[in-house]
Amino acid sequence: MYATDYLRPSAAEGPTEPAVTDKRTRSRKPQRLSDAVLPALGAVLAIALWWLATEALDIEPFFLPAPPDVVDAFLRLPGYLLNETLVTLLETLAGFGIATVGGLVMAVLLAASRTIERMTMPLIAGINAVPKVALAPLLLVWIGFGTQPKIVMVVLLCFFPIMVSTMAGLSSTPADLGELAHSLSASWWQTFAKVRLPWALPQVFVGLKVATSLAIIGAIIGEVIQPDRGLGSVVVSSGQSADTPLAFAALTLLAVMGAALFYLVAAVERVLVPWARAVSA
């Protein structure tokens, strides 16, 4: 049994009233429908306003292409754009995975020892304050050309948010749950695994969802500094050839990738932490 189970209604409180249960069941279907329809509706409205602005203001495609121009650019080079999208996606996922593991491990170490936290936290905060764009050319000197500097850039951008959010979650465990575990003679590991970690999971996923967009930004920074592969190189080459619709096609693919990664993490959160939404509601 996890400590978070104490947040849920117990059988001793009596059976749930049928009317309330039926009402909740009926309300879930419209909620699920709205969760799927509203984001799609928002995207359609944004594209419509974009198209309307380009037509009403008579903006040249060189400055701001209309949605049909972007679609034409994608249809002109679909294989090329999809291959570069795959390159950026692999860099993003690799860096995001390394940052997730490293951030979680570092957060556990810092949360376990107040002394280690006070020794290392100023250093970590100082490193995070350094602009990552300034480090990109140095990464080429230290690591060389290729995929590795881009993955390192993703790790640098994602590591700190994941670590800080995890530390915040681990440090916010209610005192009564800790006293409950102590009264049950739970060891440090049992307290961590069954009390502190489950309680911290919602906050952990906050950092992971923030890091999804930062991961893509890190990959693009690396690709712009070293424009050999990826969607960042497409944007750079499109600017040099004055092919603005192709640049917007690459940017659109980046936006789709970012939304997909965000909702993927959100879906994992719903599976692993189903009780968090119920408690907040």
Query: What count of domains describes the coordinates?
Result: 2
Q: What is the count of DSSP helices, taking H or I runs of 4+ residues?
A: 11
At the fourth level of CATH, the homologous superfamily of the largest domain is: MetI-like
What number is the mean pLDDT?
Answer: 82
The major sheet is characterized as: none
CATH architecture of the largest domain: Orthogonal Bundle
From the spread of the alpha carbons, the general shape counts as: globular
Task: Name the structural class.
Answer: mainly alpha
Taking all Cα atoms into account, the compactness measure Rg is 24 Å
Count every beta strand, where a strand is a DSSP E run of 2 or more residues.
0
Query: At the third CATH level, what is the topology name of the largest domain?
Result: MetI-like fold
What fraction, in percent, of the residue positions are helical?
Answer: over 70%
